[in-house]
Amino acid sequence: MKSDLYDRIFALVKKIPKGRVATYGDLADYVETGPRVVGYAMNASHKVPGVPAHRVVNRNGLLTGKSHFSNPYEMETRLKAEGVKVIDDKVAEFDRKRWNPNVELKKLTRNK
DNA sequence: ACCATGACTATAA
DNA sequence: CTTATAGCCATGG
Fold first, then answer.
1. How far apart are CA A104 and CA A21, in angstroms?
2. What's the pTM?
3. C1' nearest to CA of A2: which nucleotide?
4. Is the CB of A3 under 7 A from strand C?
C-alpha cells in the first residue's frame, strides 16, 4: 500500500451527498492531514472511479480544481447537473451547500 | 536525507 | 480588491 491516507480521502469524498460540496480543509481535518495533501490525493483520483472530485472545492467555494478535469467546464457542469449553482467559478450559496464530515458524518455523539 | 512542488488556508498589508 | 508571506503535509526527483 502506498497510502492508506488516500483511500480514506477517496472514501470520504464518495460520501459527500449529491448536491453538496466539501472543502479541502474539512476533508483534511477528518483524515488528520494537511489541506494540500487532499488536493494531492484528488490529483491522483483520476484513476479511481466513483470519486466525485467535482464536489470538492476550496474554502472560498471556488472551483480551484476545474482545470484538472477533462475540460475546465466539466466541474461546474457536473455540479449544476446535481443542483449546485455555479456563478463565476464559485458555488452559489456555498455556506448552505457546504458539507462537513466532522459535523455531518462524525456527529460526535452527544459529547460537547 | 534534502529540495521543489502542489486541486490549500490564514493572516497581513 | 490583490499580492505577499508563512504554515501546512505527502509525494517525487
1. 12
2. 0.90
3. C11
4. yes
